Amino acid sequence: MSFRPKQFAAVLLLLSAALFAAAPALPAQSLNDKTDKLVSLMKQDGFDYKTTNSPTVFTIHFTGTNMKDIKVVLALGDTDDDCDLVVFVTVTPKATMPTTANFRYALLKFNNDYDMVKVSLDSDDDLSVRIDASMRLADATYLKNVVNQVKNSSDEIYGKIQPSLVP
Fold first, then answer.
1. Low-confidence residues of the chain, pLDDT below 70?
2. Any alpha helices (H) in 23-139, and if so which ranges?
3. In angstroms, rounded to a whole number, what is the distance separating the alpha carbons of residues 93 and 122?
4. Confidence (pLDDT) at 127
5. DSSP alpha helices (H): ranges in the chain?
6. Which of 118, 96, 95, 123 lies closest to 107 in space, CA to CA?
7. In CATH, 28-164 is 3.40.50.12780
8. Measured CA distances, 99 to 16, 66, 136, 162 (Å)
9. Distance from C-alpha of 127 to C-alpha of 140, rounded to nearest angstrom
10. Are 17 and 59 in contact (CB under 8 A)?
11. What CA–CA distances, in Å, run from 109 to 38, 39, 95, 102?
């Protein structure tokens, strides 16, 4: 039997669709599984983490060059397997930030200067640095890199804005 190019492409498309339809779906991780995995990875990385009132939120404290206490928060969610871990630091509260256009412009420029992290105002309008990560992809090295990126970026940004902050 000979196929023309259009027929060959159609047959390949049908075969591909049949193979993907027959493939078993990978089970989604439960929130308990994600929590267990996160705790295991934090232990592997040697982080001195603290639990909170929520079973899916943890904190790790660091001392920075510019910030005396860098409180990195790791919060798990179950809504999206590709973005189910939020790692963030609240750099400074709203009350300490000047409301000038120049200050806001500097904050906006940080999003270009720091590639992996988001520099933003959180729901309380406090300045935060965060990474939305994936527990599905996480191993100890990945988690350590994410935590360090958030910690180091927060410390550097605080050092740059500290002279402008309102006491």
1. 1-29, 79-83
2. 31-44, 101-113
3. 10
4. 98
5. 5-22, 31-44, 101-113, 140-161
6. 118
7. no
8. 56, 22, 39, 14
9. 28
10. no
11. 32, 34, 21, 11
pLDDT tens digits, one per residue of 141-165:
999 999 999 999 999 999 999 999 9
Domain boundaries, the chain: 28-164
Report d(CA 109, CA 154) in Å as an integer: 14
The amino acid at 16: S
pTM greater than 0.90: no
Contact 14, 111 (CB under 8 A): no
What would the two tokens of residue 152 be? 């180091």
Q: Distance between terminal CA atoms of the chain?
A: 82
- Residue % of the chain over a pLDDT of 70: 80
DSSP assignment, residue 28? P
Distance CA 97, CA 20 (A): 52
C-beta separation of 80 from 91 below 8 A: no
CA distance 103 to 82: 33
- Whose tokens are 């969610």? That residue is 77
Query: What are the tokens at 43?
Result: 């232990």
